[in-house]
């Protein structure tokens, strides 16, 4: 079966007709479009033929719109405006740092770093319409691969092919526990071996911080034996402050979590201290990959200016 599609109006035909509809005079319409009057008349006639209806009532002295012509003029104006908006938006999006950008951030980074970054984005990139999505590592990695997110801020390396990884900062893990814990009151840096035999409380499955804590424990033969798990880092802090074990706390979280009148004791580890690297990742195939590289530089500058307890990379 062969399908024969009906011809559709061209933009040139709509533009010609709308000019006549606006001026109700062929010579003035042709002058406004900077085209010859015969070419204009031919375009309007072609539109009438395509639509199978008369759009104009022509006399020797004037031009009038038919009822169909009045309705088509409204639609033509709407179509041409939409095309104009489309061209304008595409032209704007060709400019750097313009238009929508979707950023994914893991929960153990978002509340501690975003307050330093969002004002910077508004100030330095006012035409960038940034939206932030907070979710666990597996979720935001899937969404950036599928194109639902443009870039993600998470722990590196991701070990995902096709992504560019821009390290932003490194930070140490501190051992956090209740002030009533036997280890409290001593500022001597801890050896990792001290983790053996402790009840280590972790985040639930899906948090990369959980896996990083397990790796630290595994390196020294320690195990996370606590039966209690937390769904968020603030909850984890509350649990250990209440005496339900100890945990590893990223240093960037310390100013926020200890500023909530939480009774929490902290101990550093001896070098080389356990920690993590946080970075920005985005698709290598993205048309805006060069912009995201520049955004990573801006993020480093903003974090450095806020003097967060992290080591800026680069």
What report would you give on this structure?
It holds the Pfam family HTH_1. This is Probable hydrogen peroxide-inducible genes activator. Keywords: Activator, DNA-binding, Transcription, Transcription regulation. The chain is α/β, with parallel strands linked by helices and 314 residues long. 42% of the residues lie in helices and 20% in strands. The strands form three sheets. Strands 3, 4, 5, 6, 9, 10, 11 and 12 form an eight-stranded mixed β-sheet that branches. Strands 1-2 form a two-stranded antiparallel ribbon. It has a two-stranded parallel sheet with strand order 7-8. Helix 5 links the parallel strand 3 (99-105) and strand 4 (128-134). Helix 1 packs across helix 2 (26-33), helix 1 (11-23) packs across helix 3 (37-51) and helix 5 packs across helix 10. The protein is rod-shaped, with a radius of gyration of 32 Å. The model has no long low-confidence stretch (mean pLDDT 88).
Rg (C-alpha, Å): 32 Å
Helix content: 40-55%
Cα(first) to Cα(last) distance is 63 Å
Mean pLDDT: 88
Question: How many DSSP helices?
Answer: 10
Number of DSSP-assigned strands: 12
Main pleated-sheet profile: 8 strands, mixed
Coarse morphology:
rod-shaped
Order of helices and strands: HHHEEHEHEHEEEHEHEHEEHE
Helix/strand/pairing category: alpha/beta
* Uncertain regions spanning at least 5 consecutive residues: none
The percentage of residues in β strands lies in 15-25%
């Amino acid at each position: 079966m062969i399908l024969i599609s009906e011809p559709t109006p061209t933009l040139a035909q709509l533009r010609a007709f709308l000019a006549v509809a606006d001026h109700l005079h062929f010579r003035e319409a042709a002058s406004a479009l900077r085209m010859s009057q015969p070419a204009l008349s031919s375009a309007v006639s072609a539109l009438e033929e395509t639509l199978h209806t008369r759009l104009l009532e022509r006399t020797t002295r004037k031009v009038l719109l038919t009822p169909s012509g009045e309705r088509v003029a409204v639609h033509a104006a709407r179509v041409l405006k939409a095309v104009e908006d489309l061209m304008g938006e595409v032209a704007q999006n060709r400019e750097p740092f313009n238009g929508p950008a979707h950023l994914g951030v893991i929960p153990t980074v978002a509340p501690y770093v975003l307050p330093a970054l969002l004002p910077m984005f508004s100030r330095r990139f006012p035409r960038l319409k940034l939206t932030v999505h907070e979710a666990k590592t597996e979720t935001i990695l899937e969404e950036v691969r599928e194109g639902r997110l443009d870039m993600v801020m998470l722990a590196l390396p991701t070990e995902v092919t096709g992504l560019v990884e821009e390290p932003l900062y490194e930070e140490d893990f501190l051992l956090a526990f209740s002030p009533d814990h036997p280890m409290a009151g001593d500022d001597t840096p801890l050896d990792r071996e001290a983790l053996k035999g402790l009840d280590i409380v972790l985040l639930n499955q899906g948090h990369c911080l959980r896996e990083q804590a397990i790796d630290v424990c595994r390196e020294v033969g320690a195990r996370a034996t606590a039966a209690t798990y937390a769904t968020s880092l603030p909850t984890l802090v509350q649990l250990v402050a209440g005496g339900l074990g100890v945990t590893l706390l990223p240093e960037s979280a310390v100013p926020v979590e200890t500023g909530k009148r939480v009774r929490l004791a902290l101990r550093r580890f001896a070098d080389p201290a356990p920690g993590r690297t946080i970075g920005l990742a985005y698709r290598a195939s993205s048309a805006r990959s060069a912009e995201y590289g520049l955004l990573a530089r801006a993020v480093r500058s903003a974090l450095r200016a806020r003097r967060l307890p992290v080591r800026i990379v680069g």
